[in-house]
Structures
1.
Amino acid sequence: MLDVHFFRRWMAITAASVDREAERLTALDSPIGDADHGTNLQRGFTAVRQALEKEPPATPGAVLTQAGRLLISTVGGASGPLYGTLLRRTGKALGDAGEVGEEQLAEALRAGVDAVMQLGGAAPGDKTMIDALVPAVDALGDSFTAAREAAEEGAVGTTPLQARKGRASYLGERSIGHQDPGATSAALLIAALVDAAEAGGE
């Protein structure tokens, strides 16, 4: 079972990953976006980490709901509302349970991904974070490791695609050949699940 400490670790490890990869995320965003994806997410997840350390929520759902609210209020551009919606909807789906199983997390995360698709209007193949999140959620029923691998494959798989949503879509065919920064950061979020489980001896 996954308790509140697991979810706090997940957010802390995600924040550390975003810190470490911020320059790469911004470099990926430079040719097809506003060149601010890394710095925006870094600001948001730093705020999440600090808030969770200062006043730790009592349940897994509350951790994600609070993280989502903070991302919406602190991250600029489209990624704030999208990541915020992902985590808030996932947290809401988890409810008030003190512990959740991996299957419950998979179902809740799917609800979060569905909410992101509804908000952004994106589908798999549109060269967005959805290209990493959908295969990750599909694989989550097998294991966190399978989800991580699926997310990373999905992110890399955006390179030959032409963007159909978001800022990159304005570039048309010129968006081809660039890995999507949103899918790349989404893969970091999923990869952090594995590290959070290993750190807690799950």
2.
Amino acid sequence: MSKKIYVIYTGGTIGMKPTDSGYAPSGNMQALLDEKLPSHARKGLPDFDLVEYEDLIDSSNIRPQNWQQMATDIADHYEDYDGFVVLHGTDTMAFSSSMLSFMLRNLDKPVIFTGSQIPLCEPRSDGLENFVGALSLATDERINEVCLYFNGRLMRGNRARKQNAYLFDAFDSPNFPWLGRADINIELNEALLLKPENKPEFHLECAEDTQVGIVQLFPGITAQWLEAALNQPQKAFIMRTYGTGNGPDGDPALLDTLKKATDAGKIIVNLTQCHRGAVHQDSYAAGSALAEAGVIGGLDTTTEAMFCKLHHLLSKGYSTWKIRELVGHNIAGELTI
């Protein structure tokens, strides 16, 4: 029996049309796909149903309620389809694919995010190849997780990052190998694919207010500046540090600011500003000082994945102690233990 895929169109470049102020989200994706992919060209591709969200967005406008909508939509239709494709804007696709990896766990079907750098309405668009590739991968029974597919690369959704604003190979997975590659043949690295341990689990709690902030160290950062950032209402912060997780250990006032914040219950996770690599706070004294101030090492998790992981854990109502413990636990393949 042929497989059937559920396609969600959320907006993004792939379906945009030109306006006086630049490209903007546009509806009627089904007609655009019918034009670019007529019936005779669909041989070998699975059947699909496409749902177009009423409020299409440029992904730079993504909010937690959008994650709730996508995850709930997939959960509601999970038993009716063999796989899922989410058409999404590239700017925050890595955030969304990360978030859904925490909300939809132990999957036994593929959920594939994709989009494009150039709209489908343009002659040089990369959107059709990305859509066809994602649609084909969404039928593969070996894939049981949330992935991101772009320019022939299949990546774990919570390991991917947008690394280039101008090239077709916009996404990469800096700290984890690609799960597969679509060239003449589609090849998967089956040893890396997640295997479901139990029946699918849908954790659809997703607080509407963003509960995580991001702070980046820079030369000359002061305790006063950091204190003002940490006094924001967010309950958890990602602090993007240098190298393997180093900070200015020669500034006692700054370290005291961090200690006061963590003692007050703020969760501060240390991630490196480097594109590749992991945080090991004990490698240098400058990292050990942060650990002594209560900062938690985030290992090789991406900023996008840690942001979503913290938001997810806070949405579930876990205690500060529990969240601090789970930061270093591999929940959905997001970090290397």
